[in-house]
């Protein structure tokens, strides 16, 4: 299914080249592409060494990034503006946590028409200006420590991009995580019982278990194996151990 | 309720001082405290200028951070180890997405006993060694673009710390987002009707609305106001506008 959202990240007056590069990297890791800079401190920020280093391969995002003079120029095609601001404003859009807002926004979005969603990030030093916040439909606030809420610009963008991707994935399907190793097959109860019998013989053979006074050793091992949810392969390994114990004990007697 | 988890972030052989500082900042924003470095490239990394700059005020995390020689020394008191590794291993712990894993882990955790959860991050260049991954109970994989999955170390830590905090908050209560402005009171239907009547008179007075051929203007405005969910304050403002239109129209006639 095509995702009916065009996503754009807008940095307003970013001052650190490293943050611009890190933002490009964060955007790309989450499968987005569009970056627009409004009045960056460095006119050549997209080509600065620090930017390229911190982008760490997200060169296509940097190459396609636009630099504009006004926020308006950055907003063509955008229909839903999300400000990211630490400080609540006297009035302006409602403040919401990203996860909650994205879930509702994506669930409510009609799939037959495309929307443009823009994430606005203020400058590292001053945050967003009131007049820019007022234009937004929502002010996203990442829940943070009440006395230390200041995320780095690129870190905040990474969290927002991640949450937005998660919300899109929940409705439209998303990135799979790296495939795990081949799924293991759990041992069934008879296989566990067989293992326990085999182990019991081995433990007797090496004189650890006294059959006349077994105490609770075997039930304890049973509980351990149940809790660990042994795989068939692990049962195989442990039975190999039991076999070796029995053989060694036989040699010791002989 | 006391959260029955002690949380620790462990960076194995970090090579960039900036990442150590950014990690400290990320840890603090999410309300955590413990940072341990295993064999960092720079012995004095906790006191380097770049570290302190990027920590941006999270000095207490840096001051309390420990530097150790082996992963074992970093793991005292830790009972659940989460590796973060891009590359799936031939065997080793199951690979899971952080959100899914944390939700299940926190839901299943008994509250009467404290657990130590450690997040292990490999070096920027080489990731985690197999032998370190094998020790972990789970390998966390942040869902990313299939062909560009490499998050910056501190960015990955920020996402993991954020997700872990969100999971803790869901069960034990968490950080509130910055309080919004005073909640506004929605206008009720009679107030909207009163506004529409007032506006209709004003629109007639300024010769925009022809009462003989009103078309669908008022129903359209009604639909717009309903969709916008006007507050009582906004109704007040719009009625002020209507009043001014009527007064101006009266002066224009006089």
UniProtKB/TrEMBL annotation, chains A, B:
KW Nucleotidyltransferase (keyword) present: no
Function per UniProt: Catalyzes the formation of 2'O-methylated cytidine (Cm32) or 2'O-methylated uridine (Um32) at position 32 in tRNA.
Listed InterPro entries: Alpha/beta_knot_MTases, RNA_MeTrfase_TrmJ/LasT, SpoU_MeTrfase, tRNA_m1G_MTases_N
Report the main location listed first in the record: cytoplasm
Q: Which residues form the tRNA/rRNA methyltransferase SpoU type domain?
A: 8-162
Enzymatic reactions? cytidine(32) in tRNA + S-adenosyl-L-methionine = 2'-O-methylcytidine(32) in tRNA + S-adenosyl-L-homocysteine + H(+); uridine(32) in tRNA + S-adenosyl-L-methionine = 2'-O-methyluridine(32) in tRNA + S-adenosyl-L-homocysteine + H(+)
Listed under subunit, the entry gives:
Homodimer.
What is the superkingdom listed in this entry's lineage?
Bacteria
Q: Does the keyword Methyltransferase apply?
A: yes
Q: Which residues form a coiled coil?
A: none
The identity of this protein, by name, is tRNA (cytidine/uridine-2'-O-)-methyltransferase TrmJ
Cite the entry's keywords alphabetically: Cytoplasm, Methyltransferase, S-adenosyl-L-methionine, Transferase, tRNA processing
Q: Which organism is it from?
A: Hylemonella gracilis ATCC 19624
Q: Which EC number(s) does UniProt give?
A: 2.1.1.200
Q: Give the record's GO CC terms.
A: cytosol
Q: Which GO terms describe its molecular function?
A: RNA binding; tRNA (cytidine(32)-2'-O)-methyltransferase activity; tRNA (cytidine(32)/uridine(32)-2'-O)-methyltransferase activity
The similarity comment for this entry is: Belongs to the class IV-like SAM-binding methyltransferase superfamily. RNA methyltransferase TrmH family.
Location comes to: Cytoplasm
């Amino acid at each position: 299914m095509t995702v009916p959202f065009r996503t754009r990240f807008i940095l307003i007056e970013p001052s650190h080249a490293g943050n611009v590069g890190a933002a490009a990297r964060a955007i790309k890791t989450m499968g987005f592409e569009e970056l627009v800079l409004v009045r960056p401190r460095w006119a050549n920020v997209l080509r600065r060494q620090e930017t390229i280093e911190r982008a760490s391969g997200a060169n296509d995002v940097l190459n396609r990034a636009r630099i504009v003079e006004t926020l308006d120029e950055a907003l063509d095609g955008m229909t839903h503006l999300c400000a990211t601001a630490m400080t609540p404003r006297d009035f302006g859009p409602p403040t919401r946590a990203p996860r909650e807002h994205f879930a509702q926004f994506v669930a409510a979005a009609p799939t037959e028409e495309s929307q443009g969603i823009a994430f606005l990030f203020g400058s590292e030093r001053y945050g967003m200006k009131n007049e820019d916040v007022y234009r937004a439909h929502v002010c996203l606030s990442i829940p943070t420590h009440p006395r230390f809420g200041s995320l780095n610009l690129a870190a905040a963008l990474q969290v927002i991009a991640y949450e937005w991707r998660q919300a899109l994935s929940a409705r439209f399907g998303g990135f799979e995580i790296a495939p795990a190793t081949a799924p293991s097959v759990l041992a069934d109860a008879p296989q566990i019982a067989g293992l326990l019998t085999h182990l019991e013989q081995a433990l007797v053979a090496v004189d650890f278990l006294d059959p006349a006074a077994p105490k609770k050793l075997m039930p304890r091992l049973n509980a351990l194996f149940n809790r660990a949810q042994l795989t068939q392969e692990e049962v195989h390994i442990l039975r190999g151990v039991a076999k070796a114990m029995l053989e060694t004990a036989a040699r010791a007697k002989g």
